[in-house]
Write a structure and sequence with these properties.
Layout (H helix, E strand, L loop, with lengths): L15 H15 L3 E12 L5 E6 L4 E6 L1 H4 L11 E11 L4 E11 L3 H17 L17 E5 L4 H13 L5 E5 L7 H13 L3 H4 L19 E6 L13 H8 L5 E5 L7 H5 L2 E2 L3 H7 L4 H38 L1 H65 L2 H5 L5 E4 L16 E5 L4 E5 L7
Parallel strand pairs: 3-5, 6-7, 6-8, 8-9, 9-10
Antiparallel strand pairs: 1-2, 1-4, 2-3, 4-5, 11-12, 12-13
Length: 447
């Protein structure tokens, strides 16, 4: 006999929002906090400062949000394709029901350690002065030879050679090949640069192994060196962050241009070089002014030299003609000098006569006006004397005494101006308008 089937339990009916919250709670209890590594995709930064992107690998991807507070703590600028490590909390964005990771911190993965090494080496070499602007040299306007250090199979070599052939086909180019990637690349780059240094003006005469043998062609003199490589990841360009290579670049006897990677790539070699170019082609163009420019400048200089020479010839011809005319007729020069002398004598006589006449006129004027001026001066003096006498009389103290005032003094002649200067029984003398009166101070002197 078969058992009766058990009744089927009906599933719980959820509200959508409640289900999302339940899933979020389950994720929080099961996973959070969480750390994940992946590649950034579709990175964007909103005007509010929040960052939104996806993190993906070969098998999946997850939406991520990094709010402004956490984004403000970043020490680098995230970009698409960059491998990073994230720490945060998983959750559900209820409005869309999407799974998302709220990022609390982000750091580079893979190249993070390399980048830290790069910063430490850069700071140490900068402190030693290898990056100082004072040691940077100007590029030669017309180099006698150009040296190139790069890989034989690199696309950068083709780009540089093409640019140089187009712009300066007359300048010799010396290639010193080297590895530009891998563990052995730094030492190979140092060797390649050292080989080119022996071809510079300061090294040509010192390198015995480069002395031309009989029938051999003299090596060109290198006045500028290009260190170039195409773009790549930080790991691909790591050979150009080597300390020994940096010191070798800093010791270059001629200006050195670094054209490593793309415009956004920077290596230690770029900071040590005399000039950094954004690309290998740009490095070639910096040291190679087009031949047409120099030919035009040469033609212009030739025209100016020709014009200056013609002007100089004309000027010298005029001087010769003038000298010949003077040498051929000295009597004419003598006649001109005599004429000038006669003019000067005439002017002297006229000037002396005119001065005497002027002086005589002044004397006559003085003789005619002298009596009147004496009379006027005497009258003015008498008038000034009368005014002074009047002012002096007005200051006479006797005029004050005549108005009823008296001059009071003790017997020694000292003026008494205050009652406090007297004492009872003191003898005083009062001077009036018509004489003097002796007085004695009584007890009722003070009122």
């Amino acid at each position: 006999m078969l058992d009766a089937p058990s009744p089927v339990t009906a599933p719980r009916i959820w509200q959508v929002g409640a289900l999302c919250r339940a899933v979020a709670d389950a994720l929080d209890a099961r996973f959070n906090p969480v750390a994940v590594r992946g590649e950034i995709s579709n990175f964007s930064r909103a005007a509010s400062g929040h960052c939104y992107f996806s993190l993906k690998d070969e098998t999946g991807q997850i939406r991520c949000a990094m709010f402004r507070r956490a984004a403000g703590l970043l020490d680098f600028a995230p970009r698409d394709g960059e491998l990073v490590e994230l720490r945060g909390r998983l959750g559900v964005y209820e409005q869309r029901g999407d799974l998302q990771l709220i990022v609390e911190s982000m750091s580079r993965a893979g190249q993070g350690a390399l980048f830290e090494q790069f910063l430490k080496l850069k700071a140490r070499l900068e402190q030693e002065g290898l990056f100082d602007a004072a040691r940077k040299r100007e590029l030669p306007a017309m180099p006698r030879g150009i040296g190139i250090v790069t890989s034989l199979g690199a696309a950068a070599l083709h780009d540089v050679v093409t640019a140089l052939r187009r712009r300066v086909p007359h300048i010799p180019v010396v290639l010193s090949p080297a590895l530009v990637q891998g563990a052995g690349a730094p030492a190979d780059l140092v060797r390649a640069l050292s080989n080119l240094y022996r071809l510079t003006p300061s090294g040509q005469g010192l390198a015995a192994d480069l002395a031309p043998k009989k029938g051999a062609t003299q090596s060109p003199c290198i006045d500028v060196i290009l260190l170039v490589r195409g773009g790549g990841s930080m790991e691909d360009l790591w050979a150009f962050n080597d300390e020994q290579l940096a010191r070798t670049i800093a010791k270059s006897p001629v200006p050195l241009v670094s054209g490593v990677g793309h415009e956004t790539d920077f290596t230690i070699a770029d900071f040590c070089a005399d000039l950094r170019a954004p690309t290998p082609t740009a490095a070639a163009e910096l040291v190679a002014q087009p031949r047409e420019v120099w030919l035009g400048a040469l033609a212009l200089a030739g025209e100016r030299l020709h014009d200056a020479l013609l002007r100089q010839i004309d000027s010298q011809s005029q001087r010769v003609d003038l000298a010949a005319s003077r040498l051929g007729r000295p009597s004419a020069l003598l006649a001109r000098q005599q004429l000038r002398l006669g003019h000067q004598a005439q002017r002297l006589r006229y000037g002396a006569l005119s001065d005497l006449q002027h002086k005589a006129s002044l004397v006559q004027g003085l003789e005619a006006n002298f009596p009147e001026k004496v009379r006027r001066a005497a009258a003015a003096a008498q008038e000034r004397l009368a005014r002074a006498r009047l002012r002096l009389e007005l200051l006479d103290p006797r005029l004050v005494l005549q108005r009823g005032y008296a001059w009071l003094a003790d017997l020694e002649g000292s003026a008494i101006t205050r009652a406090s200067q007297t004492h009872i029984g003191q003898a005083l003398r009062a001077t009036l308008a018509d004489g003097e009166v002796d007085l004695t101070v009584s007890p009722q002197r003070l009122i």
